[in-house]
Specification:
Elements (H helix, E strand, L loop, with lengths): L5 E9 L2 H17 L3 E6 L14 E7 L2 H9 L1 H13 E6 L6 H13 L1
Antiparallel strand pairs: 1-3, 1-4, 2-3
Helix pairs in contact: 1-3
Length: 114
């Protein structure tokens, strides 16, 4: 696995704010323990072009490597905590893919040279 940063994207609809807050309180320490970094969230993202995203919260965070991202997700403590997320929200998608910026830069250069 590569040591390039990976960005995680989640889209969910919060249907029980009190239960979801319990998840949030545990999420940040576990994210930090696995060297993850919370970047942003938006409950009403604006679409500049194309099809509007699914309704709900969009969350973006990153890890220094795919290996760390996978270790975070597989962590038994996170899996136990994620039951609270499932109880308090409905996931529309959760980290549908991992994006490695250098690969994106390489693809952008190739497309611009074509």
């Amino acid at each position: 696995m590569s040591d390039v940063p990976v960005f995680m994207l989640a889209n969910l609809v919060v249907n029980d704010a009190a239960e979801y807050r319990k998840y949030e309180k545990g999420f940040f320490p576990l994210l930090k323990r696995r060297s993850g970094e919370f970047l942003t969230f938006d409950d009403a993202p604006h679409t500049f072009e194309g099809i509007a995203p699914r309704p709900g919260r969009v969350i973006i965070f990153k890890f220094p490597s795919e290996q760390r991202a996978r270790a975070w997700y597989a962590d038994p403590a996170y899996q136990a905590l994620s039951d609270r997320r499932r109880a308090g929200s409905r996931a529309r998608s959760a980290a549908g893919g991992l994006v490695a910026p250098p690969a994106c830069d390489r693809l952008a250069r190739q497309l611009s040279e074509a």
